[in-house]
Specification:
38% helix; 14 helices; four-stranded mixed beta sheet; 369 residues; 14 strands; globular; ten-stranded mixed beta sheet
Length: 369
């Protein structure tokens, strides 16, 4: 029932977008306002998105939007972006710059904005002088924009809310939940659609499944030359220009898996989610949403949110199929002290969340450790 209501709300928002901006709505905490489809992609506007397409769903602040061109250009398919800011005019100008200078963003990326509840209604305003910035300067300008100060708001980064907005406002049957500073492997959207077409009768169609895409950290020197294929990735892995991320994925098993075909994507093996860490996956748009009671330390560290979500999917009965030749790349190596802090914060959230999940799924024999 709820999915039908969400679809109706989405269609209404799109219809109002064509007639004029729909009014923002408050989130369940009343701390934030949500403006759906602040800017819609041309693919959405002209009804060119198909249900069988896969939408990348991601979140951002103003300054992080400089990562978007690399993500969209590699994906070349629908992208749903939710942005946290209280400066909507600057956001509109930034989006206009990105759409003007990077045509795939204009074609595929739709933007939604999450604002503090007391933000003035200025969604129709923008600074037209920003549009005169040369395209060679757009990414540097964007990277240096001022982000919303969460300390002054006495609040954590609302990552779960942002992720949910991006998912709910997607229009495809499947979504790929990523961070904005990531780059997927080449032709992944097309390969996954072909995989789903071939796999209609197997266990991954008959059971609720999320398809895990292994994630790696890419050395800064190779960010502009991000590998597209597994063979390229493995070469950089040997030279230590790529490192496996901290995850519950068995990277050795993934690396050594021998695909039956170099042309087709397939499930290499199944993983369990009882001891979760953050994971990036392609899944049905109708999977359980991220719990909006769980927040992040900042916009660069949302491990606890993703870990709790994987834990819930495990308890809810989902299985986890790890894709054999697909991968995603984080730009830059993570700092060790940040990882230690993330793990500590992550375990604290998981312990509390386990109690809540026992109440949500009292019949489930599964739990997280």
């Amino acid at each position: 029932m709820s999915s039908h209501v969400e679809k109706d709300d989405q269609q209404n928002a799109l219809a109002k977008h064509h007639r004029g901006m729909a009014p923002p709505k408050y989130d369940s905490s009343n701390r934030y306002k949500i403006q759906k489809y602040l800017v819609a992609s041309e693919a959405i506007t002209w009804n060119q998105v198909k249900s069988e397409d896969v939408t990348i769903t991601t979140h951002s602040t103003l300054s992080k939007l400089h990562h978007l061109p690399a993500l969209v250009e590699r994906w070349n398919a629908p992208v749903s972006v939710s942005v946290l800011t209280d400066d909507v005019p600057t956001l509109l100008s930034t989006i206009a710059n990105l759409r003007r200078c990077f045509p795939p963003i204009k074609q595929y990326a739709s933007f939604h904005v999450v604002m503090p509840a007391n933000t003035r209604d200025n969604t129709g305003e923008s600074d037209e002088t920003e549009l005169k910035v040369p395209c060679s300067m757009v990414l540097d300008l964007t990277e240096n924009l001022a982000d919303l100060n969460m300390t002054k708001l006495d609040a954590y980064y609302p990552s779960s809310l942002l992720l949910n907005v991006a998912v709910v406002e997607s229009t495809t049957d499947y979504i790929f939940a990523l961070d904005i500073d990531m780059v997927p492997s080449g032709e992944l959207e097309q390969s996954f659609k072909a995989f789903m077409t071939r796999r209609e009768e197997d266990q991954y169609m008959n059971n609720p499944t999320v398809f895990i895409v292994p994630d790696f950290d890419l050395h800064d020197d190779y960010v502009s030359m991000a590998p597209k294929y597994k063979s390229e990735l493995l070469g950089l892995l040997k030279e230590n220009y790529v490192k496996p991320s901290v995850s519950f994925i068995d990277y050795n098993q993934w690396r050594e898996f021998k695909s039956t075909s170099s042309l087709y994507l397939e499930v290499a093996f199944e993983m369990k989610g009882q001891n979760p860490w953050q994971a990036f996956f392609i899944a049905s748009r109708n999977i359980p949403k991220f719990d909006e009671a769980i927040h992040s330390v900042n916009n660069s560290d949302i491990n606890s949110v993703r870990s709790c979500h994987i834990c819930e999917l495990h308890v809810a009965g989902y299985q986890f199929g790890v894709m054999d030749s697909a991968f995603v790349l984080h730009k830059g190596f993570k700092k060790t002290n940040n990882l230690e802090h993330s793990m500590e914060f992550n375990q604290m959230h998981l312990k509390k969340y386990g109690v809540k999940l026992r109440e949500l799924y009292p019949q489930s024999p599964r739990s997280c450790t």
